[in-house]
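Sequence in, structure out.
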Amino acid sequence: MDDRALEILRTFLARRGLDTTTERVVTEDLDRVSLYTIGNILVIFSQKDKGLMDRDIRNYVKFANDNGYTNGVIIVGLAKPSENVLKVIKSLVKEKVQFFWSWHLQTDWTQSRHYIPHRIVKEDEKTALINKYKLTNPTYQFPSIDSQDYPVKVIGAIPGDLIEVTRPSPVAGESLQYRICVEDVNVV
């Protein structure tokens, strides 16, 4: 299962233009995990079948920081995260901590005909859009998208990023919509 998930993660990171060189990391510091680096990003596969606890997430992030893995951490769990774990992950998303449920990494869902393309808008494009629509507080004037939505994690967006969503339209062929990435849409 790790091999297929690593392949999918490499594909996502390659689309972001990042290094995809993969190496196994050996440590005695963490229990029931498989560790890898993809480029400069630490990937942690939890082998805990009952699900992760919030302390596990904090231990993983502490391990990453203590060992110089500061370019991002991807945690892959065997089970869906609990609400408490999800809150912890969302609080760490600005530190480039992402969580994927292993089932979501068995197929490249971005290749499905039902997948709606997302991309992070460049800073100059963001400024142009803000000026075009005369926005005074874009964080609250753009609709929001949660930092843990699958397409947001795939492109590597963090809170504050503006996301362009390309939806099919029967009239125009495609319709561009914009969303501001937020830590948690339930808090905005």
